[in-house]
Write a structure and sequence with these properties.
rod-shaped; RNA Polymerase Alpha Subunit, Chain A, domain 2; six-stranded mixed beta sheet; 24 strands; mainly beta
């Protein structure tokens, strides 16, 4: 019985048959400044004539057909068309001897392309910083570079107006910050960012609190009006770096009240600093409003 079955099997599978098969498509040499659209063909069906053994072999072997797209591309075209004759040649190259390609499953293969464009977009930091007590930033956080170039299909790139750094936390900071932080990649794999990371930097210094007493200067006061200010001087308190602490005095500030912006019903004005060093922080006024008496 075993010999009979073996003989039947060998006889049956030695004959030639026609069967359907398929191959995975692998695209090489994609034309410069283009990218494949999402709906590009991934498989190709075809018919073969071969012995039962060879057909069985093709069922287990993952046939791959490599296509060099540059060979079929015409400059400026939005797609690439590969005729059946060329498809037959490409498939036949991947078939072993004894297997004959009978028919390709389509008359031509059309691969749609998207044009790649690029633009520059700003970078926003997603950095959270907690300073050690007594320490503050001397200036705002600097991002280098502050913009990056993104490239990809125009339809996808249209919605990208900026990129962000990954969430990056720093705690108990007392020294200058210089860190390389990666950028968040857009969801689409077709978008490329260059560079993929940026440097974030910040100057940090120890700060101390200081107070100065400033005279109130009144502007836009009519010539025929004399007023008495209550109070005539205002104390302001602010944070300044220890390095600059001793160099500051009241001459570095100018405090004004604008008579034209007074509250005429309650006879008071709001003091404002028009001159101050740009490196001080957290300014507080001991007196929030200045009362006045008018003498005509």
């Amino acid at each position: 019985m075993l010999l009979a079955v073996t003989y039947w099997f060998l006889t049956k599978f030695s004959k030639d048959y026609t069967a359907n098969s398929k191959a995975d498509l692998v695209y090489l040499e994609i034309p410069e400044n283009t990218i494949l659209t999402e709906d590009y063909p991934k498989e190709l069906d075809f018919q073969i004539t071969a012995s039962g053994f060879d057909i069985l072999y093709t069922k287990f072997k993952n046939i791959k057909v490599e296509i060099a797209l540059d060979k079929f591309y015409k400059n400026g075209a939005e797609n690439i068309t590969i005729p059946e004759s060329e498809l037959s040649k490409l498939i036949s190259k991947e078939l072993t001897s004894g297997i004959t390609l009978k028919k390709v499953g389509r008359s031509s293969l059309v691969i749609n392309l998207d044009g790649i464009v690029s633009k520059s977009v700003p970078v926003f930091s997603n950095v959270k910083i907690k300073f050690k007590d007594g320490f503050l930033a001397l200036d705002s956080l600097i991002i280098l570079p502050d913009s990056v170039r993104v490239s990809g299909p125009a339809a996808v790139l249209r919605d990208i107006t900026s990129v962000e750094t990954v969430l990056f936390s720093l705690e108990n900071i007392e020294n200058d910050i210089e860190e390389i932080v990666p950028l968040i990649k857009p969801p689409s794999k077709k978008i490329n960012i260059e560079p993929t990371s940026v440097e974030v930097a910040m100057d940090v210094a120890e700060f101390s609190q200081k107070s100065v007493v400033l005279p109130v200067n009144v502007i836009n006061l009519p010539k025929n009006i004399n007023i008495k200010l209550i109070p005539a001087n205002v104390t302001i308190t602010f944070n300044v770096s220890v390095e600059e602490f001793n160099s500051l005095n009241e001459n570095d500030f100018k405090l004004i009240c604008d008579f034209s912006e007074r509250n005429g019903e309650e006879n008071f004005m709001i003091p404002k600093l028009t001159t101050k060093p740009n490196f001080i922080k957290n300014i507080e006024f001991e007196t929030k409003k200045i009362d006045y008496l008018i003498f005509k």
